[in-house]
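<instruction>
Derive structure tokens from the sequence
<data>
Labelled lines for chain and fold
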Amino acid sequence: MKLVSLQARGGEKGKYLSHAHGSSFLQDGFLGEGEEFMIEELGNNRVKLACKGKENGKYLSHGNGQVFLQNGYQGEGEEWILREMEGGVAFEATGGESLYYLTHAFGSTNLQKGYQGEGELWDQKVIAAN
């Protein structure tokens, strides 16, 4: 497991994947625990993104074409395939959203069909590793 922050690339550079008030969004700058995620490795490049701080126990989830926070781990909806590419990382959804990627394009967190480019890339900074 490792504790990371995920900074958007491209047009959203300087914004971080964040969690607060029960939702996920892009935050201007790194402010603290709201921009920290614990990457829990499951094998075969599959990972879960666990929230820290006040959202402890919630996971970044995907379902019905949306990205949201889920209380606890329920299954494939909380699993992502971590892809290292172009000097950054991308997260491909699993299960029913297979082939969709976590995107930050146009200033929000969503799912994008297929990998298009910088809108699906994140700079990962490791804060702590176990």
In short: The mean pLDDT is 96. The radius of gyration is 13 Å.
